[in-house]
Amino acid sequence: MSETQRLERDVAHLVPLAQRGDAAAREALLARCHPTVYRWALIQVGDADEAEDVAQEALVRLDAGLAGFAGKSQFATWLYRVTRNVALEAGRRAARALRLRTALARRPDDDPVMADPADGVHGETVSALVRALLDDLPPRQREVFYLADLEELAPVEIAERLGLEPATVRVHLLRARRTLRARILTEHPGIAEDHSP
């Protein structure tokens, strides 16, 4: 059972109670949703502190918008969209702030040093390496890969959650897997040899 399925099962009785104003059900719903929302936020933003901020804002929006949840889609699908929207807004704010800081700090003689994100991965498992390389994927591919291979959702479920066609989801997933495999083989050929049958 995937995390999304567990969430759906665990909150099924809480959602209608919370919608009717049951304070205890509301608190239980928010508490149960927090770990999942945090993990979704982390895959979106890639930073633990920022993910916590996104999760808190998503839960505030969940609380405020719960009365509007009509049950036309799964609760987890609706909550994922709320979390994703908050993460996208946070990303836009962070990008604007970074551009401003960079513009203010830039000097003509600056020589930026780019750190290799793959440094220090010696001894990690392939799974941990894939998670580390996820940040280098385009956002849509990263999101689809996470939902398919880590959350174990079917392309049809992912398509519904993201508002895409299933065929589009499959294309993004294929591209993400190819990119990750190529990066692993190029940067860590020893891992491919260690894990060959």
Summed over residues and divided by their number, the pLDDT gives a mean of 79
CATH architecture name of the largest domain: Orthogonal Bundle
Largest sheet: none
Span of the ends, CA to CA: 28 Å
Return the structural class. mainly alpha
The figure for the number of domains is 2
Plain-language structure description:
With 197 residues, the protein is mainly alpha-helical. It folds into 2 domains: 3-105, RNA polymerase sigma factor, region 2, helix turn helix motif (Rna Polymerase Sigma Factor, Chain: A, Orthogonal Bundle); 126-188, Arc Repressor Mutant, subunit A, CATH 1.10.10. It contains 10 helices and no strands. Helix 1 runs antiparallel to helix 3 (23-45), helix 3 (23-45) packs antiparallel against helix 4 and helix 4 crosses helix 5. The two termini are 28 Å apart. 24% of the residues are buried.
